[in-house]
Amino acid sequence: MVLTVNPLKLINKDLKKLEFRLREFLQIPVPVLSETGVYLLEAGGKRVRPIFALLAGKLFNYDESTLFTVAMAIEIIHMASLAHDDIVDDSTLRRGRPTLAARWGKAAAVVTGDYLLAQAMQLIYGVKNKEVTSLLAHTSTEMCRGEICQIQASHDTRQSVHDYFYKIRRKTALLLSLSCEAGAVVSGASREEARVLRQYGQCLGVAFQIMDDVLDIEATKEEIGKPPASDVRQGIITLPMLIAMNEGGAGSVRLRELLTRKEKTTAEVAEATALIRRSGGPARCRETARRFITAACRKLPLLPDKPERAALARMAEIVLNRRS
Question: 38 φ, ψ to 5°?
Fold first, then answer.
């Protein structure tokens, strides 16, 4: 398997076509919904989930129209989840731009998210594949469970590493897993091949979220498009924090005290971030993410030997080494 394949180069034309179709699909006769939907689209993002759906589908005997419809639906679900997440987190910035809630108000942001979810369901219904429809419904349900668990556990420093993985498997990993599996299912993959891609997506999604949590501690505002240490401010307990709190000693006690506070000063956020960095938590998180990446790629040789397979392996490395 050659790891020098550039995944984006391989499907660059497909992504441009997807971008055009998404923009066209989101422009509707209802001005506010059209504006907010296109605004979310123009906020950027790397279209990670459609990339995985397209690469997975192209491994098999895919139908372009069907595969594109699935990729579009998955990206629209992701966009809807961002609109809702920013309301829950009371975020004002996303990818360097005001969030929907900050620009149009929370009511418009809620309705936009609901509308996008409904549109995604309509797209998937048009595919007329019961397995993919079931996968989408299951994923949407579990994502909500993960989100509500995170809300209930905010500022709770008693939660465990097991609790952390329960949440991120639902909030992040399931949608990446759906992208890979659904792209394969609608393209004629066998049950075993679809299972391999589901497991690949699950492991990759976990690694993706771990790295996201590390970047929140280590990256700059310019790199991640929002203020760093957002999780510390909001009381979202992530793996770097759990590792630091479990180290023992005065630093761990102080960190636990800071993270429990619902209101924190700028100085307290900076102190908590410094304690997490000094604990070595981010470095250990990278090691954990690496193990999940290895697990993700372990069974890729069972898939058809095509450039897309090498691209999936390369995507795993990109996830591990990303800085934004």
Answer: -65, -35
Q: Does residue 5 form part of some domain?
A: no
4 part of a folded domain: no
Q: What is the pTM of this model?
A: 0.93
Q: Give the torsion sign (CA, 178, 182, 184, 190).
A: positive
Farthest CA pair distance, the chain: 60
CA distance 247 to 2: 40
Question: What number of CA atoms fall less than 13 Å from residue 211's CA on the CB side?
Answer: 23
Query: CB of 57 within 8 A of CB of 69?
Result: no
Tokens at residue 131, please? 């397995």
Q: Are 217 and 277 in contact (CB under 8 A)?
A: yes
**Residue ranges making up the domain that contains 162:** 11-316
* Of the candidates 143, 37, 48, the residue with the CA atom closest to the CA atom of residue 83: 37
> How many domains in the chain?
1
Position 253 in a domain: yes
Residue pLDDT, tens place only, 193-229: 999 999 999 999 999 999 999 999 999 988 888 889 9
Rg of the chain in Å (alpha carbons): 20
The first and second tokens of residue 166, run together, are 């329960």
Evaluate whether residue 6 is within a structural domain.
no
Q: Which residue has the higher pLDDT, 43 or 33?
A: 33
